[in-house]
């Protein structure tokens, strides 16, 4: 493992764990306002960092998903890159859905800021995390099958 890749991996891992701890504990840091109007909570950029760092941890941690050699790993790698892109675009897409940077929704009849937009916001948010976990789980399971095939010629 070269130093540059190891540094990227460890940075992504530390950021992912830190963001998860802040979100799971409901840290008061998340509600600190970043602007004078109290419209942008610190939780928005913190969560955004996590949305990018989680899939990047997998990307930098597993060489086979950066430079795949099998069909399955090429597919997993493509999905991982899509998830990284969705993580990067999480704030702009969420802003378009909510109409605000605190990502709050109401009972509006219109799409933006309404209940249907909120459902899409949660699909996007959970999709990034769950998609990353599905990719890494699928990769690990494929390793088990590969090892069992190699052990029984």
What does this 3D model show about the protein?
With 153 residues, the chain is mainly alpha-helical. The chain has one domain. The protein has 6 helices and no strands. The protein is elongated. It starts with a helix and ends with a helix. The mean pLDDT is 94.
SS-derived structural category: mainly alpha
Order of helices and strands: HHHHHH
Sheet with the most strands, sense and barrel status: none
Distance between the termini: 30 Å
Helix content percent band: over 70%
Write down the domain tally: 1
How many helices in DSSP terms? 6
Average pLDDT, to the nearest integer? 94
Residue share in β-strands? under 5%
pLDDT < 50 stretches: none
Number of separate strands: 0
What is the CA-atom radius of gyration, in angstroms?
18 Å
Overall geometry comes to elongated
Attribute tags:
153 residues; mainly alpha; 72% helix; transmembrane helix; transmembrane; membrane
Question: What's this entry about, in short?
Answer:
Keywords: Membrane, Transmembrane, Transmembrane helix. This protein is mainly alpha-helical and 153 residues long. The chain is built from 6 helices and no strands.
Secondary-structure topology with pairs:
Elements: H1 3-25, H2 43-61, H3 63-66, H4 71-88, H5 90-98, H6 115-151
Transmembrane segments: 43-62, 82-104, 124-145
Keywords: Membrane, Transmembrane, Transmembrane helix
């Amino acid at each position: 493992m070269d130093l540059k890749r190891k540094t990227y991996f460890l940075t992504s891992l530390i950021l992912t764990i830190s963001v998860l701890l802040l979100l799971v504990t409901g840290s008061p840091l998340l509600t600190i306002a970043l602007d004078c109007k109290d419209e942008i909570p610190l939780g928005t950029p913190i969560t955004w960092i996590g949305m990018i760092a989680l899939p990047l941890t997998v990307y930098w941690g597993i060489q086979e998903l950066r430079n795949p050699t099998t069909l399955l790993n090429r597919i997993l790698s493509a999905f991982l890159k899509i998830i990284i892109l969705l993580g990067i675009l999480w704030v702009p897409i969420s802003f378009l859905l909510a109409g605000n940077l605190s990502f709050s929704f109401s009972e509006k009849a219109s799409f933006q800021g309404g209940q249907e937009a909120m459902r899409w916001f949660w699909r996007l948010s959970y999709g990034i995390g769950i998609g990353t976990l599905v990719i890494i789980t699928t990769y690990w399971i494929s390793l088990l099958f590969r090892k069992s095939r190699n052990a029984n010629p």
